[in-house]
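Why does residue order matter? Because the sequence determines the fold. Keep that principle in mind as you read this record.
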Amino acid sequence: MTAPLETVLARAGLKVTADEFLSLVEDAAKKLTAPQVDPAAHFSDAERAALSDVGLDLSPLSETEADPRARTVAEQAVLRDTALSVNQAAERIGVDSSRIRHRIAERRLVGWKDRGGWRLPAWQFTDNDVLPGLEVVLAAMPADQPALVLANFMTTPQEDLELGDRPASPREWLLAGGDPRRAAELASTIGTPA
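Structure:
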């Protein structure tokens, strides 16, 4: 038996009703491109051959395979739901809302325009301030990356950032007093080929 959605949302600390969350998921799904029934249809015969030669599988998903877009839709919905408004961010860190807008414009905070105004991902805040060292990391991040990519980077353990004997996420690293320049160095590679 699966847990009701309300229970899952509450355990995750998301303050949203099941209907509101499903609406967020639906909005996020609409923003993605439609599923490609035949991925090979996008390419010429020569391109298909070249891609197949390097091991790329261009066959359509089978009926039993999960749609890889599902995780992205869920992550996008959670990112939107947990994001703060300008007023909420200002209240949290004890500044005027105009200061929050200035920080967004100066890339000292990450945000995106949404219905009703700016939204700021919660990962960049502590309970009462901005994440220590955030400005150093944001200055190194490529400006062309979407908020979800930045959120995933900041909350995913990185092998090059260790706390004790385990990899830490850049957010954990900064909260523990780690050198923001190390996280910034990693952040500068977001979106570049490995």
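The chain has two domains: 5-66, 83-187.
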